[in-house]
Specification:
Layout lengths: L1 H6 L7 H9 L6 E2 H8 L3 H13 L3 E6 L2 E9 L1 H22 L4 H15 L4
Antiparallel strand pairs: 1-3, 2-3
Helix pairs in contact: 2-3, 2-5
Length: about 120
Amino acid sequence: MQVLAAKLVDLDLTASEINALAILADGRGRTISELGAAAGTRPTTLTSVLDRLERRGHITRGTRPSDRRVVVIEPTASGRLVSGTIRQTLAEMEEQALDGLPPEAIAGFHTVLRALAEVPA
């Protein structure tokens, strides 16, 4: 994460903020619990990260029409732009790391990543 943060130093974001925005890069809103699970962070810890991102205009907090008690975090236009930069940087880092490996090794790597993403927290 430190290498990523160093590559993205111009964004002036902490590693936790980068992680949250990377998760939101698909533009899909998530509850604080969903975002916390994806980030591997407790919702209470995530609150200060979200406060900072909201102050910078990168996210909004809203509610679901079906349950107004649920807080949904969504990226703003600014947040989508920044998260796109984060995702692009991640893709470039992955490409550099996997450069020269045979296709079956890369496929195996992606299989392991998907399996790890599906492990319950």
